[in-house]
Design brief:
The chain contains 2 helices and 8 strands, in the order E-H-E-E-E-E-E-H-E-E. It is mainly beta.
Length: 157
């Protein structure tokens, strides 16, 4: 394991949503069928294959609501899937797009100002490592540069 690790949505959360738990806005996850294009599951960190069911839900990847606890749409395989293992290697899912938004959060789960930047995929691991060297940063989010949707958490290994 290297100096950073990409960490997928916890299995307990994925199971709860699949069982009908309400999302961050108090709604039941919406069930749809994938066309095979651009449906990244935040649990297995793979695209949902064409013809397979998936869930769309509002997700808040923070322990509690607060002003910096961003909420946004995510996709999740509707059927049970294996959680992506923690890894120091960027998951293949994120290699398709040229740029991502990388942002640091403090131990209080607030954005650390000055850390957010649209980052070329080739620089994600290097920038993540540099940001996680700072004492004021507890973890990072990799988000869509186009839509700001949460993708995966990056932590110290």
């Amino acid at each position: 394991m290297g100096l950073i690790k990409f960490t997928a949505m916890p299995s307990e959360e994925a199971r709860a949503f699949r069982a009908g738990a309400k999302d961050a806005y108090g709604n039941a996850p919406e069930r749809r069928v994938s066309d095979g294009a651009g449906i990244p599951c935040r649990h297995c960190l793979r695209g949902v294959e064409a013809g397979r069911p998936y869930l769309t839900l509002a997700y808040r990847p923070f322990p509690e609501p607060q002003p910096y606890a961003e909420t946004g749409p995510i996709f999740l395989c509707a059927d049970e899937c294996a959680r992506a293992p923690d890894s120091d290697v960027m998951p293949d899912l994120f290699r398709a797009r040229p740029d991502w938004l990388l942002r640091g959060y403090g131990h209080d789960d607030r954005i650390v100002y000055g850390t957010g930047a649209v980052t070329p995929k080739k620089d994600i691991c290097t920038r993540a490592h540099a940001l996680l060297q700072r004492d004021d940063i507890a973890y990072l989010h990799l988000r869509s540069a186009q839509y700001n949707c949460y993708q995966v958490r990056i932590e110290r290994a």
